[in-house]
Amino acid sequence: MRVAILGGGLAGTACAYMFKRHGLEPVLYEAAESLALAASGNSVGLYNPRFTAGRGPEQEFYAAAFFEALKLFESLPGIDWNPCGALHLVNDDKKAKRFPQTVQSWGWGEHEMRMLSAPEASEVAGVALAFPALYLARSGTVSPRKLCGAYAQGVEVHLNHPVADLSTIKADAIVLTGGMGLVKFPEAAHLPLKPVRGQITYIEASEESAKLRCTIGYGGYVTPLIDGVHCVGSTFQRWLDHSEIIGQDDLDNILKLHEHVHAFRGLHTVEGQRAAVRTTAPDNFPVVGALDAGRRIYVSTAHGSHGILSSLRAAQLLAQLLTGGQAGYAFSGELMGALSPGRFAN
Ligand SMILES: Cc1cc2nc3c(=O)[nH]c(=O)nc-3n(C[C@H](O)[C@H](O)[C@H](O)COP(=O)(O)OP(=O)(O)OC[C@H]3O[C@@H](n4cnc5c(N)ncnc54)[C@H](O)[C@@H]3O)c2cc1C
After folding, report:
1. Distances 134 to 48, 227, 243 between C-alpha atoms, Å
2. 273 alpha carbon to ligand 1 midpoint, in Å?
3. How far out from the chain centre does Cα 322 lie?
4. Quick one: DSSP state of residue 126?
5. Do residues 103 and 214 share a domain?
6. Given this model, what pLDDT does residue 346 score?
7. Cross-strand pairs, 26
8. Distance from residue 345's CA to the centre of ligand 1 (Å)
9. Based on the structure, what is the number of domains in the chain?
10. Shortest-distance atom of ligand 1 to CA 178
C-alpha cells in the first residue's frame, strides 16, 4: 500500500520509518529544501514523557512512547543519543504534590523513575542543586534534526514539494503532518490548532558547569555539554507564530537557568540560538487518527513540546490503523478517542 506523507519533520519522518518497517510503501513530500527545517530542526532535544498525577490516556501514551523510543534509539546510528538521565526539579508547590503522585501511580521501577532529595539530586547531577527532584535515569537527549534524517533513510522523499491540493496525490492513503501548515487543507481546517513559538539558547560552559552529567528541567531546561556548549530552553510564546530570533528570549532563558541552577550563575555568553513554532491543540494532547476514514486521510500533529516521543508513538498508531492491526501495537479505545481528530467535532 502506497502512503503519501505530507511534511518532513519528526511527525512525518517517524511515520515514514514505521510504515516502511511494517511493509507499507511511504512516499514523503516536504515543502522545504531539506527535511527538519521547521520545529524539528533543533540540534538538541530532550525526550521526556509529559507527567500526569494519575493513570489514564496521557500516561498510557507517553509511557509507551518512552520505552519504544529507548528501544529504537539504541538501534539508530548517528542521532546523537545520550541517555544521560533527567532531573525535574521540584520548584513549586504543584510539582511537590504531583511528582510523588506520578511516581506512585505510573508504577515504573525505581531504576526508571524515583524522587530524590536535593543532596541526592546534586550527587546525580554533578553540580549543586537546591531542590529535590523527580529523576528519570534513562531520559536524556537526542538530535531531532538527525533523528528525522535517520527515520527517512531509504524512504522516497520529494523535497521542494509543497502540496496544495490532496486530489493531486496519487496514493492509497494520505497522512498529513505539516504542523500549522495543515490548517490550509479543507480536510483539516476545522482542527483548532494553535502555534506556540519557542527559542533555545546555546551558552558557553565554565569548569563548574561542565561537570553537569544529566539534563535538568525547572520549567526551562539545561543540558550537559554537547559540542562544547550547553543548550538552554526554551521560551513558550502562545502569542507569537514566527521563527525570527529575539534577543530578549536568550536573556529570559539564561535568567531562568541562573535562578534554578546556581552552578550556572555568571555564565552569560550566548554561543547561538534557534527559534521555531510548535503546533499545539487546546487540550495539549496530540491529534492522531483518521480525518476522513472513507478517503483514507489521516493526521499526526499537535506534538507540542514533547514531539520526540509523541511523534514516534503516533506513527505506531497510524501504522496499526493502516495495516488493519497487523503492525501489532496495543492502544486502548480510550487513548484512541483522546488522540482522535474527531474529539473536536462538538
Ligand atoms: C524551541 C523548541 C524546543 C523544543 N524542544 C523539544 C524537546 O526538547 N523535546 C521534544 O520532545 N520536543 C521539543 N520541541 C517540540 C518538537 O520539536 C515538535 O513537537 C516537533 O518538532 C513537531 O514535529 P512536526 O513534524 O509535527 O512539525 P514540523 O517539524 O514543524 O514539521 C512540519 C513540516 O511540514 C512541512 N509542510 C507544511 N505544510 C506542507 C505542505 N503543504 N506540503 C509539504 N510539506 C509541508 C513543513 O515545511 C515542515 O517541514 C521543541 C520545539 C521548539 C520550537
Report:
1. 12, 27, 32
2. 16
3. 23
4. S
5. yes
6. 67
7. 3
8. 25
9. 2
10. 34
- pLDDT, tens digit, 9 for 90 and up, residues 8-31: 999 999 999 999 999 999 999 999
Rg for the chain (alpha carbons), in Å? Answer: 20
CA-nearest of 281, 279, 277, 278 to 338 is: 281
- The domain of 121 spans 81-140+195-280
CA of 79 from ligand 1 middle (Å) equals 17
Q: What is the rounded CA–CA span in Å between residue 251 and residue 51?
A: 27
Tell me which H or E stretch contains 253. Answer: helix 247-260
- Do 219 and 271 sit in the same domain of this protein? yes
- Measured between alpha carbons, how far is 322 from 271 in angstroms, rounded to an integer? 44
| Residue numbers of the chain with a pLDDT score lower than 50 | none
Q: Which amino acid is at 222?
A: V
If one residue of 218, 278, 284, 313 were mutated to test the ligand 1 pocket, choosing by the most ligand atoms within 8 A of its CB, it would be 278
CATH of the domain at 254: 3.30.9.10
Quote the ligand 1 centre to 128 CA distance (angstroms). 34
pTM score over 0.85: yes
Q: Which amino acid is at 200?
A: I
Task: Report the SS3 class of residue 29.
Answer: strand
CA separation for the pair 218, 118 (Å, rounded): 14
- Per residue in 258-313, pLDDT tens? 999 999 998 889 999 999 999 999 999 999 999 999 999 999 999 999 999 999 99
